[in-house]
Prior knowledge:
Blueprint: E1 2-5, E2 8-10, E3 13-15, E4 20-21, E5 25-26, E6 31-33, E7 36-39, E8 43-46, H1 54-65, E9 72-74, H2 80-83, H3 86-92, E10 97-100, H4 102-112, E11 119-122, E12 125-128, E13 132-134, E14 140-142, E15 146-152, E16 162-168, E17 185-188, H5 211-225, H6 229-239, E18 246-248, H7 259-270, E19 275-282, H8 288-302, E20 308-312, H9 318-327, E21 328-338, E22 341-342, H10 344-355, E23 362-369, H11 375-387, E24 390-391, E25 396-399, H12 404-425
Parallel strand pairs: 8-9, 9-10, 10-13, 17-18, 19-20, 19-21, 21-23, 23-24, 23-25
Antiparallel strand pairs: 1-2, 2-7, 3-6, 4-5, 7-8, 11-12, 14-15, 15-16, 16-17, 21-22
Amino acid sequence: MTEITNKIYYVGVNDRNKSLFEGLWPLPNGVSYNSYLIVSDKVCLIDTVEVDFFIPFLKNIQEVIGERPIDYLVVNHMEPDHSGSLALIKKYYPDVKIVGNKKTFGMMSGFYGLGPEACSVQGGSAVLTTDTIEVKNGDTLELGDYTLNFVLTPMVHWPETMMTLCTTTSGVSTPLSLGEGQGVRLLFSMDAFGCFGALNGGVIDEQINCDDYWLEMVRYYSNIVGKYGTPVQNALKKLAGVKLDYICSTHGPVWHQYIDKVVGMYDRMSRYETEPGLVICYGTMYGNTERAAEVIARAASQAGVKNIVMYNVSKTHHSYIIRDVFRYRGLIVGAPTYNTGLYHEMDVLLSELAGKDIKNHLLGWFGSFGWASKAVGEIQKWNDERLHFEAVGTPVEIKQALTPETFAQCEALGRDMAAKLLSIEH
């Protein structure tokens, strides 16, 4: 197993078989389920892994500690890809004390029948379990060489989420007021600062080529955490001023060399900051809407926009479209009318975007129809009622196919978006 730093080990696993994370988001490069083991006077396991991987997970633990028992299991997040092995760990290590916050144990009881609210039947009598430790924000737990400090971060992105700050005991002053000082500081950050992609041998960022992980971090954040920008900002404020040596997320690499970069990315994304650029996505049945999208893109490019990405919403998984909407300020959408409503895949995409509560974006739109005009009005309704993006340009409605007039209107829409984007950039 990989030793991250003195007596702290990575004991996670890789999942290269699952095709969709949460049954929704593509995993072309797999995903890791990260767990960590602190070996000191007390042995502490930080989070577990999805239950399907329990046997290799157990072998990883035993490779580090042999027959030694686990004293504590800290549960930072209750989603089953991280808590799924809790019940089995409890069977193999019956004396382990499970550490979590009040909301953690409510969920643990519901998912696995574990925790202070769970009961076991002994001789016909119900007996409350006593093998848990409930912590509040700022509470600490001594392990010997290391001290754990618990930082509650609700709604990043579940209500029970928390992070665990681990410091060498000699470096501890007061909770969350750690300056430069002495000692090593690791943040076990649950899903925060994580990304899609299995780990291919190396674990710590300085051991691997991280190029493929940066956009996967944006996609992970936008798909999973994106709705919760304010709670992420609250979490970052709680950690402000803490000098970290390692960030140990539950997905992706352990961050060491790139800590400033990943924290900066989360700060920008949670404030909905964007890069200059434009996403154009469209639905099309017979190519007429697609031709309009090409005209709009060319006009925006000629007007000076360099970062333009185009997506057919029926061909590209929406996960990648959502990622790039988080990256770029401008969005232009277009689709045909279908069954006197909005083309299905565009309707789904707009619903997904609305569910992310994205802010600080510009929106232009266009649509086409054969015999019933509906798409343009439906897109405007989405923006008026759910998206609330700043409208740019005049919507273009195309009857059957482009005409010289609608061609010019598409060019005008592209130029209007470009002018707005460039004015913001400068």
